[in-house]
Amino acid sequence: MSTTDVIADMLTRVRNANMVGADFTLVPSSKIKIAIAEVIKDQGFIKNYEILMSNTPQRVIKIHLKYTAEKKPILKGLKRVSKPGMRVYAGKGEIPRVYGGLGIAILSTPQGIMVGKEAWRKGIGGEILCYVW
Known about the structure:
Low-confidence stretches: none
Order of helices and strands: HEHEEEEEEHE
Oligomer: single chain
Number of helices: 3
Shape: globular
C-alpha cells in the first residue's frame, strides 16, 4: 500500500500501538524513519528499535515501546507538523518549545534529523517534522 505521508503513517502506527499497550509496533523502513526513531530513542520516549529483514525487499523497523512500572505509557503524544501539502520551516531563533520544554520538536536540518534544542544550540533551523511529548 502506498501512502503519501510516510512520517505521519509511522507516527500513527506508534500512537495506536501505544494506546493499546502493545510491546512493539512494526513500521516500513526508510532512512528518515530510522533517524526519527533514533532521536525518539535518545530522548527516552521508546525503549529501542531494530531493523528487521522481511520477505519483501522493504525492510521493517520494530519499535519497542516504553511504559512505567504501572503500565502507563511514557509517550503521551505525537503530532505531525510539516505535511506534504503545507511545509513548516523554522529559523534558528524560531524553533518552538513543546509543552514548556517537557516535549521535543524534531527537525530536519542541513546537518540531519535532530531535536529542536540541539538545532538551537548549533544555530541552525530547518523543517519541523513533528512534536513528541
